[in-house]
Design a protein that fits this description.
alpha+beta; five-stranded mixed β-sheet; about 20% helix; binds ligand MTE
């Protein structure tokens, strides 16, 4: 049974990473171009060109910068994990063709004062969007650095007004086998994809709900229209295309832990000292380059999150 697969080799043609200054200049240029520019880079906008241009690019939050070059947009958009479609990372961007992430609803329910089924278009306008440059470390030992646009998950938690008994968030992705062929041909997985965070993790300042990337809304392969981003954890925690956030009392089961409890745990914090049972986690390959660099504890975000685990 294939699990998260280690690629046989670094098959991507070498492309240069995008230095931060080049990206930020291009961003200013796109802002000036407005709707026309958005159409050029993002393909058909989910919100419609006019609305998308009003939301993106969002103001960049300078508190979250990088110690490495940004991954080139084309590299990040052509090397994806989205098992609902395929396990072939380079084919995801084509296999998502029939996926319809608009219109979209997200349900907030469980131990909250304010349960609600949100229309995504309403939600994305209600919460303050900002851009943050984050590292991303997959459990398979590849890594990238990308500009996400989104809002802190804490803002959504505050809107939901959790009851005192709510200790965890259970996040669930969509189930649409007719649009996502991988949900049909991999019946051994317990679809839909589901993940979980403790309340302290969900409300940590780093935890984002991303609605955009590289200054425009999320393309389908990155988890349109909204996905989780927890940069100190292995990438499989960053559940894509969320339809449900359930506030619960007990630690919820998760997709990968259910599939293989010996290899994937609930917490899944990046830790170079703890090898995966089948490979080392000491270093990581920066996609789109020939560089392999040491992996950092909590993916380098210890100052924000180490206190959660002491
Ligand atoms: N979310 C869903 N619904 N399905 C998936 O297969 N894969 C995870 C995560 N979120 C996955 C998912 C894994 S293993 C990683 S590394 C990241 O998405 C990859 O995100 P990216 O393709 O945007 O780089």
């Amino acid at each position: 049974m294939p699990l998260i697969r280690i690629p046989p080799g670094w098959e991507l043609p070498e492309r240069l990473a995008t230095p931060e200054a080049v990206y930020l200049n291009r961003r200013r240029f796109l802002k000036q171009l407005g709707a026309a520019g958005l159409g050029l880079v993002a393909g058909p906008a989910l919100l419609g060109a006019e609305e998308g241009a009003a939301l993106y690019p969002a103001k960049c939050n300078p508190a979250y910068t990088l110690d490495r070059a940004l991954t080139a947009e084309g590299v990040a958009a052509s090397y994806n994990n989205f098992y609902e479609f395929t396990t072939d990372k380079e084919a995801v961007r084509e296999k998502v063709a029939d996926f319809k992430p608009h219109p979209w609803q997200v349900e907030i329910r469980g131990l909250v004062n304010n349960p609600k089924v949100w229309d995504f278009d309403e939600l994305v306008r209600k919460l303050p969007l900002e851009e943050r440059l984050y590292r991303h470390r997959c459990v398979e030992a590849w890594a990238m650095a990308v500009p996400w646009t989104g809002f802190p998950l804490k803002a959504l938690v505050d809107l939901a007004r959790p009851l005192s008994g709510a200790k965890y968030l259970r996040l669930v992705s969509f189930y649409r086998p007719d649009e996502a062929p991988g949900q049909k041909w991999q019946p051994w997985y317990s679809w839909p994809y589901y993940e979980g965070l403790s309340m302290a993790e969900a409300t940590n300042e780093l935890t984002l709900i991303a609605t955009g990337i590289y200054g425009h809304e999320l393309p389908k392969q990155h988890g349109a229209p909204l996905r989780l981003v927890t940069p100190w954890k292995y990438g499989f925690k960053s559940i894509k295309s969320i339809v449900l956030i359930d506030f619960v009392a007990a630690q919820p089961p998760t997709f990968w832990h259910t599939a293989n409890p010996d290899e994937y745990d609930f917490v899944a914090n990046v830790n170079p000292a703890v090898p995966h049972p089948r490979w080392s986690q000491a270093t990581e390959q920066l996609i789109g380059t020939n560089e392999r660099v040491p992996t950092q504890l909590y993916n380098g975000y210890g100052e924000y999150v180490a206190k959660l685990y002491s």
